[in-house]
Amino acid sequence: MSIIYRHEFEIKVTSDTNTSASYLVVFLEIDNSVKLKTRPYDKRQVFDFPIGKSSRLAQDTISVSQSAVDLRDGKQEGFHETFEPKKLNLESESTQTSSEEVHVLDIQKKRRTNLKDVCASLNQTRHFLTDHRVISRHLVYYQDQDLAFCNNFKAGSTTMSRMFDFMNMYEKYSSPFDIGWEECSQRQKHPSVKNISEFNTNFSTSLKVLFVRDPYIRIFSAYMDKLFFPNIYYWIRLGIPIIKKYRDGASDKAVVCGHDVSFSETVKYIIDGYDSHSLNEHFVPYHGACRPCQIQYDIIGRTETSMDDLELIWNTLENSGTVKVQLPKIANRSDIENLDDKAGMIYKNRDRLSRCLSFYDVMKRAWRAFQMRGMIDCSITMPIKESDVNTTSLDRFKQILRQAYQQSNGELKSQCKRQAIADAYSTVLLEDLRILKQKLEADCELFGYDAEPNYIFNRS
Predict the structure, then answer these.
(1) Same-domain status, 240 and 359
(2) Which of residues 108, 132, 156 is at a domain's end?
(3) What is the pTM of this model?
(4) Is the pLDDT of residue 60 over 50?
(5) Number of C-alpha atoms within 13 angstroms, CB side, residue 305?
C-alpha cells in the first residue's frame, strides 16, 4: 500500500496493510464490498462512499485526497494544526470507534478551535510575554516518545511528569508514583532554543502537549501549597519578600520566617509581578509559559478532564509504537502520594520549621491545608494531641492522614474545597479582584474558563 503526502502529492511506500491506506489525518479502509470508509480526525464530516474496483488503490485515493486537503483550508498564519499520521489514534468506522473516544476527540477539536479563534483576536498588549529562557524551563522533551510537554506548575505538573517518565521506566518501577519527584526533576530535559521559531522548526513532528486548569483555582492551589502549607523553602524564597513589600508593621517573626502570608497579599504580589514580569513560576500565566498562540499544541489537557486527556495521549503514543506499557490508574493514588510527600516534607524540615511555629502548629497547619485542598473532610479533626507530638513518628502521621482520607466523604471534601476557595477570594479587595481579572482574562479566554466566576465576584 501507499501513503500520499500532502506537500509532495507523490506515492511513497509504507508498512500499512493491504486493506488500509493513510493520508494526512484521514484513515481509509476497504471492506469486503470494496467500499471505502474513512473518518478525518477533526471530525468535520464523516466520509462514507463507494469507490470502483481498481488494481491500484493508490490511484483511487488520489481522486478523493483533494476533499481531505479542503478540510485543512483556512489556517491562520502562526497557528495551525500539524498532526502527523504516526501520532494519531485514527480509527475507521469498521473498527467501531467508541462513543467515548469520539467525545474526547470532539472536545480536543473544540479546545483547539477556541484557542485558534481567541489567538486571532487577542490584544497582544494583554500578553504576559516571556523570553525563550522562561519557555525553555517550562518545556520538557521526552525523546523516546518524541513528546514535547509544556509543564505548567500547579496544573497537575507533578503527576503528569511522573506519568510521562513512567513510559520509559516501567521496567524499574511498578507505578508512576514510585518515582520520586527529585528523580523526575533530574531526568527532565529542557530543549535549549533561541526563539519560538527555532522550537517550532526543531519539534515540528513532535507530539506537543500542555495541561491547564482554572486560573483562579490554580492561584489558590499555588498559595496553599507554597505559602499556607508549612513549606520552609517557599516561606523564605517567596513569603518573606511578599510580607516585606505588602504588610505594614509586620512582626519581626513574620519578616524572618515568611510563615503567615495572607491570600490577599499573594494576589497583590501577582498583580504587581504580572506587570513587572517578575512572577514566581507557579503563577506565570499559561500564555506566557507555553506560548499557545505561537506553538502549535496537538493536545490541550485540563486537570478537570485529566484521565480522558491522558488516555488520549497514551493511546496516541501507543499507536506510534513508542509506549509499551498500559496507562496506569491514577484515581486516588495522586492524593495518597501527595499526603505522603507533604508529611515527609514537614518531618524532614522539622527543626527549621520549629523556629517559626511549634511542630504541633505545623501539623495542624498541614492538616488544615489538606482539608482546604479537598483531600480530607473538614468535619474530621486531627486526632493528635499536643502532648503526643514528640511520640508521633512520620509513619504514624502518614497512617493517620491516609485513614482520614479514606474516611472522608467525597462530596463533603469537594464542598470544603469550594468553600475554602470562596473564603480566600472574599478577603481580596474588590478593586484588586477586578485588576486580577484583567490579568487572567487572556488565559481564561484561551482555554475556555469563566473570567468572572460568580462564586468569587458576587459580593452580595
Answers:
(1) yes
(2) 108
(3) 0.76
(4) no
(5) 18
